[in-house]
Amino acid sequence: MRDRVPVVVQARGVRSVPARALWVCAEAVVTCGVVLLLLVVHQLWWTNREARAEAGERVRLLEREWAGPQSAVPSPAGPPPTVGPDAPAAVPDASAAPPAAAPAASSAYAVLRIPRIGLSAPVAQGVDKKRVLDKGYVGHYPRTAAPGRPGNFALAGHRNTHGEPFRYVNRLERGDEITVRTRTATYTYRVDQVLPRTAPRDTGVIAPVPRSLVRPSYGYSAPGSYLTLTTCTPEFSSAYRLVVWARLVSSE
After folding, report:
1. Is it true that domain 46-251 has CATH number 3.40.50.620?
2. Computed from CA positions of residues 120, 125, 126, 130, in that sequence, does the dihedral angle turn out positive or negative?
3. Which residues, in sequence order, are CB contacts of 51 under 8 Å at separation 6+?
4. What is the spatial distance between Cα 232 and Cα 240, in angstroms, rounded to a whole number?
5. How far apart are CA 194 and CA 138, in angstroms?
6. CA separation for the pair 240, 230 (Å, rounded)
7. Residue-range domain boundaries for the chain
8. What does each of the 252 residues of the chain score in pLDDT, given as a tens digit?
């Protein structure tokens, strides 16, 4: 009589449940990774591409408009002129300029150029993120001086994403030229000081006579015609602010 060989029949699906759960978890992880990667690509590439295109087109439209028949609309007026021993001798007498209405909020009215870093960007009124900064524009702080006027013409711009116009302002050095063109004139400033890092609450850097409240050794002590550039630092962080100051040296 032959011995019977026992046959073991495994129940289907008993061991496949953990495997299926593991597979589902793996798919979820991969999906999340792909979504995160797409978000990073959107922030670091697409927002830059979109904002640079819009900002570049705005610069072309402004300069095309200025090349046509001159309009009676002048550049925005700043605060009453002041005079101080710290002001450069080449500064024109801005007090002779007639008063003008301030530009509409979020509207671009000037072009900022910084040859050292290859920047050409429109300047718009205000520092609202959605309506100004995220469009690749440089924002003009409200209640600071107008271009070429005595006081402090203070600007803000993104360091990263959304056109990142101020990505490389950390490369600016003393003596570098910065120009601001409006409908009626082109103002040339020369970089004078760089504050590598200060707190976001340091409002002294955009005061009429700019001086850091956090690091008082940086800044000025007498009235003049100043330009201030502010942006976030370090890159891909908003923990601190990087500040560049320049003085007006000529007007055309």
Report:
1. no
2. negative
3. 134, 135, 136, 162, 163
4. 6
5. 18
6. 10
7. 46-251
8. 566 666 555 555 555 677 777 767 776 666 666 555 445 444 556 778 899 999 999 999 999 999 976 554 444 444 433 223 333 333 334 444 444 556 777 799 999 999 999 999 999 999 999 999 999 999 999 999 999 999 999 999 999 999 999 999 999 999 999 999 999 999 999 999 999 999 999 999 999 999 999 999 999 999 999 999 999 999 999 999 999 999 999 999
Whole-prediction pTM value? 0.74
Radius of gyration for the chain, computed over Cα atoms and rounded to the nearest angstrom: 28
Catalytic residues: 158, 232, 241
- Are 136 and 163 in contact by the 8 Å Cβ rule? The answer is yes
CA distance 210 to 203: 9
Nearest to 134, CA basis, from 61, 51, 54: 51
Residues 6+ apart with CB under 8 A from 103: 76, 109, 124, 125
Q: Does residue 176 contact residue 104 with C-beta atoms inside 8 Å? A: no
Q: Which of 46, 106, 97, 99 is nearest to 251 (CA)?
A: 97
Residue in this structure with the two tokens 């591409």, named with its chain if needed = 49
